[in-house]
Amino acid sequence: MDATRRFSDRVADYVKFRPGYPDSVFSALATRLSPELPRVAADIGAGTGIFSRGLLAHGFEVFGVEPNPEMRAASELALGAEARFHSGGGRADATALPDASVALVTAAQSFHWFDPEQCRREWQRILMPNGIVGVVWNQRRLGSPFMQAYEAAMQFLKEYDEINRAQRDRNAVARLFGEKPFATLEFSHQQTFDWEGLRGRVLSSSYVPKPGAPGHDELMSALRRAYDAQQRDGVVQFDYVTRLHVGRL
User: Fold this and answer.
1) How does strand 102-108 pair with strand 40-44?
2) Tens digit of pLDDT for each residue in 49-87?
3) Domains of the chain, with CATH numbers?
4) pTM of the model as a whole
């Protein structure tokens, strides 16, 4: 499936159940930005606006770039009243932003869908001199019994391991930065879910079969068993490590 269309029927679950990002991610980006540069960011693959919201809260003017019309409409509904938020339908390799127009380029939970070399050319074009890039993922942390049971339940899904590996592909990140060094920072992050929240979080992923599709009932049964075994007072904790790769191109 075209990556720009994968989440068209997942928007409601994405908005309601996907995690935000730790404040420390935005602070790390802000402190690495040269003080002479304005706080103007391009959020590439902005989706429903989750990362854009964090950038706005930390004082940035944000140009959200999102080719999926359903996802983009959700970001505009959530953030359109904010004068510092601007929404456009460009792609990662063709943003439609002017040359040297932003000090920061971010890609949160989206870079694994992009071509690193094409992004480097386009992002170099739109970055101001000394501008920086931040590539971010919330990645599942598997230390707890519940997260281990969750991982086991997801293993039969065809794309699960492939997308999981892509989100951890440091070589792809290195191809983006080219010969320039970049830093990798890690932060702990969590969500707490009851059963309906866990179900919604799972269904927000494009590789998970929708109700009525082959494999859906089997997956939900396995997740329900994991939830029932590990829940405490009706909730389970979903653990992440938030990884930020940051540097200049």
Assistant:
1) parallel
2) 999 999 999 999 999 999 999 999 999 999 999 999 999
3) 3-140+165-190+240-247 (3.40.50.150)
4) 0.92
